[in-house]
């Protein structure tokens, strides 16, 4: 019989905290469980009071889940902290006049559980690629997912999701999202003439983004992923004032120059009172035809940056020809099919993000005052 997420969850009842002699489930230490294509991903809450070492717990979880049989190809375990962000996430609580406090008070999308922005300091690092694949990856875990192409200056979503032959439709003031690859999506790229340069001054950019976000008939969603324009311009500020975010993901390649800009993006989100859910290292490494892994840009650079900034690291996406081809042909689902490193890493990043969201929800921090850097 096929293994389910519930089966994986049940196995965790066999994993005991070595000091408290109680299992992880009854201790409420399981932050997230996901099961997809033979890969089990488990996020465990970790705090100073946890007994044993992380390696002990990881081994015990792997053993328990593998007892389910050969269908289990991989068990991925990560630990997420319960500590509230302090220095690393930025510092003191912001006042009630922070952009996020305003957005919480007048939430225009009450049927969306988690709004997550994806940003990058630098252009071309793969922000849209990661946004699209995060959306599809989350949808593959059974979640209801929307993707808003907030890159109003250079929308990539029409190409990356293969929207060329679909016409937008609406009713009254509202426009219906496109439904492709298991997600709902909206992009300015389908609402203006192709090839027309999108030149927006500040207030126009604000208006265009607001309309896209609030006049799309999203319905109920578990996640709305927002692909932001690169850099630290007008749109992130509009976003922070308009929508209450669960948090932001920062995409970075391993090189030093990309890290410098990504640091700015992390600080920008923190100043806007937005939690940084994590950093994704894109174009992390390359796998050659010989099967060897080549660290072209210096694998681990973005991971170290995340550690220095004390924000979570969500994983690495390799440079991959199939990924680029699937982006160009608008078929992101194909990235998740197959038993290779690309599918594994993309699944891992999506599941780790879901875990971070769950931890933040459980910690009660989403209702607490936001934080900012001064
Ligand atoms: N890991 C990867 N492997 C192979 N190709 C990649 C990878 N990540 C991104 N690409 C390719 O690099 C190009 C740029 O990616 P993308 O459009 O996602 O970047 P971006 O950061 O959103 O750019 P911008 O916001 O500046 O337009 C695309 O052609 C995409 O297919």
UniProtKB/TrEMBL annotation:
Record family assignment: In the C-terminal section; belongs to the Mrp/NBP35 ATP-binding proteins family.
The UniProt record lists the keyword Nucleotide-binding: yes
Function per UniProt: Binds and transfers iron-sulfur (Fe-S) clusters to target apoproteins. Can hydrolyze ATP.
Domain MIP18 family-like residue range list: 5-77
PANTHER family linked: IRON-SULFUR PROTEIN NUBPL (PTHR42961:SF2)
Iron-sulfur keyword on record: yes
Organism: Natronomicrosphaera hydrolytica
Keyword line: ATP-binding, Hydrolase, Iron, Iron-sulfur, Metal-binding, Nucleotide-binding
This protein's name: Iron-sulfur cluster carrier protein
HAMAP family the record matches: Mrp_NBP35 (MF_02040)
